[in-house]
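Task card 7
Instruction: Convert sequence to structure tokens.
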Amino acid sequence: AVPLSPVLDKLTFPGRRAATTRLSSPAMVDNLWSIRRAANERQCRVILVGHSFGGRILENVAAPSVLSYSSFLRKNSEDTRGCARERNSRMLGDLIILVNPASEALHARQMRLATRHWPSDEPPAMITLTSRTDGATNSIWKIGKTLEKIVAPTIPLQDREYQLGYKSENVDNRTELQSRF
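Output:
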């Protein structure tokens, strides 16, 4: 007999994935900024952790603040960089940890390229941890994406080719299949 729960999990993948997009809303951003402001008033640190689909939501919501701070770091002199007040007013968390986020690898690659000039003396903003031996990453994600192509064909396919470069001549501008990356 086949346990029913893992089968149902695979069949509900597109709906749960779509729910992460709905939850990555302005209301979620506003709620997290409320937490950040309260922590700032109490001079506390904010560490945000998301796992799997929660990691996907957190990545979608927090990425703009990380990119904003990265841009600030590039444009400002070293004496204003690393200022706790600036970091606290520009980023949702002091540290954002994503554990096996249910996100496309392309998004992680784009974030990595967009923040590639992060100063070595600046603490990390976002850390993504993924295990190659994780069952969800290895099999359920692939099965879910395959089912998604059948059940919800309007969602972008993983078979498309994407440019790897990101606004830079120093980055290889070749294309690569999302699923291969």
